[in-house]
Target: Gamma-secretase-activating protein isoform X4
Amino acid sequence: MALRLAADFDLRKDVLPGLRAAAGARGGGAGILENNYESLRVLNVERNGNIIYTYKDDKGNVFFGLFDCHTRQNEHLYTFEKDLQVVSCSVNRERTLLAASLVQSTKEGRRNELQPGSKCLTLLVEIHPVNNVKVLKAVDSYIWVQFLHPHVESNPLPENHLLLISEEKYIEQFHIQVIQEDGNGVVIKNSGRLPRERVAEDFVWAQWDTSEQRLYYVELKKSRSILKCIQFYADENFNLMFEAPLDIALSDSGFNLVNFGCTDLQDQEKFSEHPTLCVFTNHTGSLCVCYSPKLDSWEQITYSVFYFHKGHSKTFTAALGSADSRVTKGITFLNLDYFVAVYLPGHFFHLLNIQHPDLVCHSLFLTGNNEVVDMLPHGPLQSLSGSLILDWCSGRLYRADLNRSYLLEFLWDARLDWEKMAVLHCVLSCRQDTRFLEAKIIQWISENISACHSFDLIQEFIIASSYWSIYPETGNMDKLLPYSSVLTWNTEIPGITLVTEEIALPLMRVHSFKGYWEKLHSNLEYVKYSEPHSHYSNSVVRREWHSLISEEKTGKRRSMAYVRNILDNAIKVISKLEARHLEPRLTPLFQEEDNHQRLLVGLMVSELKDHLLRHLRGVEKKRIEQMVLDYISKQLDLICQILEASWRKHNLHPWIFHFNRRASAAEFAVFHIMTRILEATHSLFLPLPPGKLVASSRC
Model:
């Protein structure tokens, strides 16, 4: 499977045994829950990772519990001694207040437990200790609740903030001051009238980002969809951050919520009948809006991704196969950090590269009737921050990441060039144990050196792996360093077509940015004012290097200080490279002076440093210098690794080739790899490790 799922939480394993044990300790036996185990379900996942769940006993009483993801312990929060159905629940950070909305149980013969004339009851409960219960709403429409969980040092907070989301298409924020009484007991101050304010209204869709404390919602203005985002802060303040037009079709009569907990009110079996919409961000300042309209054909399905941080959208149309391959589930979008996964059970799995979405070959599209397209649960899934996936039906919370073993195996089996390209980049994005991954890729390259026609395997490996080696240093690297050796891709991907369109950028509503918003703003400014050639290339280095070599041949020389500075740069790179590799080398590299290659390495250091200093404003010079040394030494190290792997595979001794005798099959194979390295580095004008092995390769 392309994704590896590790269960962080399982309702049946982490909660149910404890409830049975508690029931037995009370003398009621396990049967008190056995007949009602189906009522056990997850309600919400709070910002700190704690999971709120509910269940009923044999009398229909509603219990609220919390699973602490850090201690792996369960805590009973509150019992509502009436047979009602829970719509929504949330707990504040200190676990002193619980908010819940409930509706009349659907069981026949039950009397109305709610206030007369009301359909939904929204309560605020003091639970430390259990004390007063305040009715926030008693209305004839559904209400969802969500406490804000700010990142602050103060503990406990003197004021809590609670969002109420109404089916009537408005959102309110309640401000709840608390005071301590009788030691650690917490009660609501002035509970008779809690301050509140309208946050949003007249929306048709809303999504809560629990990790970043953001509210996204869509308004319809003159039948045009407008996406808005509100950022909540530690105090009671909040800001409207941006507005962005969306070219999607949403109905004014519709109402849909994302990440506001799970409720049985929604018919989970009819997901394919409604449009799917969600917003994903990551730490690099990306902003993706994923959309799939209502399914209107059994032969194909369409979905769009708006890459606002890149200024364009892509609309994909995927074939579904035969007409009898009926779609019973809707599309699922999953946020996987540098990727967004688009999943349609039984049909396809599309892993979209959101940092580099321009070329379709950098994203992986899997289809067929094998386990690849049945890798995830078929029930409704909720994508949470940190690559977490919540399966509402089973009550399991998974942590998802790319399955390196599967991807490496797929790399060996791939037959089409676009598959090789996509999987190569997926593997390189997995930054754990990079030495192992690089060794496996080099082994694959050596066996398939001539099997790729659309791009050069060695070039792509060196460029992409060098990029990923320093990308985490700063999110701006995707604009400044090459990600791929391929600039265009015109080959179609079987089973899918796409249309790329420019889109209007979000209109930022604030003028001071920090954290994620600073990075998003930087990305948007780059789209507006980007220089046509901001990616680094070695064209200047090529001219300067040829000029220096020409001067050397004619006896002319630049100032000794200039040349010495360039050679000093090369010494720093080679020292860093040698520090990476402490074992004796098999290949005859770095064994004597090679001024031509050292000049090239030193020139590349100088030029790349100037390039980054021009564009990375605000990053200190020493850090940039270190990044440059890391980047160039990584490129040389990759070439050394390829040579070493080839030498080791063919059991060659550390000598230099001679051309005055017939070469063995092993020597010929290694020589072939060397010539391919020279071809790959020559067109990109990449430096080579100094030594007799490559001493005259550029001349």
Remarks:
- Confidence is low (pLDDT under 50) at residues 265-272, 695-699.
- The first helix runs from residue 11 to 14.
- The longest strand covers residues 170-181.
- The chain has 14 helices and 32 strands.
